[in-house]
Amino acid sequence: MRIEEELKLDFKDVLFRPKRSTLGSRAKVDLLRQYTFRHSGASSESVPIIAANMDTVGTFEMAAALGKHGMHVALHKHYSIDDYVAFFNASNAASNAHAFYSLGILEHDLEKFKAVRAKTGDEIKFVCIDVANGYTETFIDFVRKFRDAFPKITMMAGNVVTADITEALILAGADIVKVGIGPGSVCTTRKMTGVGYPQLSAIIECADAAHGLGGHITGDGGCTVPGDVAKAFGAGADFVMLGGMLAAHDESGGEIVQKEGKTYRKFYGMSSDVAMEKYAGGVAKYRASEGKAVTLEARGPVDNTVQEILGGLRSTCTYVGARKLKDLSKCTTFVRVTQQINEVYGKAPQ
């Protein structure tokens, strides 16, 4: 047993230090990022925010809505083969260029992907290979074999939180490493296992490792407000994945509940009792649930939330003098704090 005593930080532990800026307006901030990926060789231009691959977030409807803003969606993996084929073959669909096909590492996941690809040709440009624990040799081997089989597909793989396995995944074939264990709003991994890593430090350390090898990372989880999204980019994330911030919208999916004249939507982690009952017939005897289910007041069209997120991100850039999102991490100085906001009149609505 050993203890690392170096302080690790989360989004709540820092604020951006403002700097002199020549930007006259938030409207002048360019949020588009251009990337060329190490293994696939493909290039991409987008607003690098990704809706999480949860069945109450990563839907076809969300893909269409966020595609209009140049943003990404990691589709959840529980659609039928025919549904995926129809989506990826849809002509002139602005969302196709930014949608990730998500899969796990079991044999049936791979066979399903192959079946979809056989009917869609090269329409699937991005995949998200997603497991809760990215530290197993089985996972790294799967990434390597997938890269060998599909050299031209841009691959995101995770989740991890340390530099060593970030490097291992990139060397195995991942273009983008997904970073985050336990920070999500409906994730209980840290409670159930005691495993995790403060998300800001995880992003900083994994981004440094990835960029040294020509790879990229996605900060996955922990963002509760637009300022957290900005902090993730400031810490070096190339992409930021959002779950709870995009939940309970018209496009999010999730069961609708009516209560006392108000409309609510259910939102749950993909390792929760609810999700495993829905897709696996219950929680297997050898494991425990590592997610929870919540009921959120319906939030209407996602466009309103997107405007808040992108508006906040543009404002961050003006405060620190970054004309482009690309420059935000270069312009970032974080200051450690013990308090984020003044809550004398209670917490502001989120």
Please give the number of β-strands: 15
Helix/strand class: alpha/beta
**Unreliable stretches, pLDDT < 50, 5 or more residues?**
none
What is the ordering of alpha helices and beta strands? EEEEHEHEHEHEHEHHEHEEEHEHE
Strand content: 15-25%
Q: Strand order across the biggest sheet?
A: 4-5-6-7-8-9-10-11
N-to-C span: 41 Å
Number of helices: 10
Q: What is the radius of gyration?
A: 20 Å
Q: How much helical structure, as a percent, in the residues?
A: 25-40%
Q: How would the global form be characterised?
A: globular
Question: Sheet bearing the most strands, described?
Answer: 8 strands, parallel, barrel
Average pLDDT reading:
92
Provide structural commentary.
The structure is a single chain. This protein is globular. Strands 4-5-6-7-8-9-10-11 form an 8-stranded parallel barrel, surrounded by 5 helices. The N and C termini lie far apart (41 Å). Helix 2 runs parallel beside helix 3, helix 4 runs parallel beside helix 5 and helix 8 crosses helix 10. The chain is built from 10 helices and 15 strands. 31% of the residues lie in helices and 19% in strands. By secondary structure, the protein is an alpha/beta fold. The mean pLDDT is 92. Strand 12 and strand 13 form a beta hairpin.
Any key phrases for this structure?
eight-stranded parallel β-barrel, 10 helices, 350 residues, single chain, 31% helix, three-stranded antiparallel sheet
Question: How would the blueprint of this fold be written?
Answer:
Blueprint: E1 14-16, E2 33-36, E3 43-46, E4 49-51, H1 60-67, E5 72-74, H2 81-88, E6 99-103, H3 107-120, E7 126-130, H4 137-149, E8 154-160, H5 163-172, E9 176-179, H6 189-193, H7 199-212, E10 216-220, H8 226-234, E11 239-242, E12 256-259, E13 262-268, H9 273-280, E14 293-297, H10 302-320, E15 334-336
Parallel strand pairs: 4-5, 4-11, 5-6, 6-7, 7-8, 8-9, 9-10, 10-11
Antiparallel strand pairs: 1-15, 2-3, 12-13, 13-14
